[in-house]
Amino acid sequence: MKEIRVFSPASIANLSCGYDILGVCLDKIGDEITVRKTTKKGISIKKITGHELSNDISLNVAGLAASALLKNVKVNCGFEIDIHKGIKPGSGIGSSAASSAGTVYAINKLIGEPLSDNQLIYFASKGEIASSGTIHSDNVSAVLMGGFTFVRNSSEKDFIKLDYPNDLVFSIIHPKIEIKTKDSRSIIKNQVSLNDMIQQSANLGALVHALNKKDYELIGRSLDDRIIEPVRSILIPKFSEIKSSSIEAGALGCGISGSGPSVFSLCRGMDQAKIVSKVMKKVYDKIKLDYEIHLSKVNDKGIKIIDFF
Ligand code: HSE
């Protein structure tokens, strides 16, 4: 195999109670990554289309992730990367993760798949440094494993794919404002109260259990963030109105998607998600704020190969 083109999907991180440790993979929305082998060693980013980003490999998430991977495997060729951004950077649905995960996945295929999913997640999460200033594996684990994923410990490469019901649908609204992950991380407090820590851990444990048992009511009650949402929601126009009207319209729960500004509502079934998306739209129509809506089932497969030569 000399060249491979993959579709690398968007994802939602945190899911309210799992800051930096829970992720879910979305379908349809994503980046297209092409990687080809070159005789000249090293990595270069040849083309970026869709949205503007640096092609300097030390500043681009895909470049950083590919460099981390190549430090750990022996190869006698180089790699050229083309990125078509289908996900806007700074939207909160895992734009950087799609590019870094897609790149390491493609390189692994080109070199005969010596690396496991957990190793790929680890290298892809090194790319997140470019956008977040720090390593977090919630988005990249979801993209590389598909479905709902849980990060027990990034540096120990301990990532877990969760069981979940197959009729969940996300309704996601993306107000057309940009929030840089670095900025939205910088406002989070470094200390939490013991009471908040207890309730957040309880919510997280209950959510994992509820997904496994298909307990929809408990999924809804557990989508409750005591620590991050109260701080970050001030950056998102009409967040509390979107949340209350979505839940009133039948969503199981609603929260900030990753570092925002996108907001997700989790619903049971596509019909319910369509109803909820209408009430979400209404909130931004009222204040004439431009937005995009995505309806997405959970993508259990993650990255898909488009073609290869
Ligand atoms: N867990 C990360 C955050 C996701 O909330 O900052 C950002 O992509």
Short description:
The chain has 309 residues and is an alpha+beta fold. The protein is built from 11 helices and 11 strands. It is globular and about 60 Å long.
Describe the structure.
The longest helix has 20 residues, at 194-213. 37% of the residues lie in helices and 27% in strands. It is of the alpha+beta class and 309 residues long. Strand 1 and strand 2 (22-38) form a beta hairpin. The chain folds into 2 domains: 3-162 and 299-308, Ribosomal Protein S5, domain 2; 168-297, 2-Layer Sandwich (Alpha-Beta Plaits). The strands form 2 sheets. Strands 1, 2, 3, 4, 5, 6 and 11 form a 7-stranded mixed beta sheet that branches. A 4-stranded antiparallel beta sheet has the order 8-9-7-10, sandwiched between helices. Bound molecules: L-homoserine. L-homoserine is lined by residues 13-14, 19-20, 132, 136, 138-139, 181, 185, 258-259.
Tell me the structural class. alpha+beta
Number of strands: 11
Q: What is the domain tally?
A: 2
Number of helices: 11
Net shape = globular
CATH topology of the largest domain: Ribosomal Protein S5, domain 2
Indicate the percent of residues in helices. Answer: 25-40%
